[in-house]
Amino acid sequence: MNDQPIIIADDDADDSEYMRTALISVFGQDKQVIQVPNGRELLALAKSPTFRPELIIIDMQMPFISGTDILCKLRDQQHLKQVPLVIMSGDKYNLELAYRAGADGFYSKPTSPEGYLEVAIDIRTQYYR
Question: Which InterPro entries would you find in this protein's record (predicted)?
Answer without folding.
Answer: Bact_response_regulator (IPR050595), CheY-like_superfamily (IPR011006), Sig_transdc_resp-reg_receiver (IPR001789)
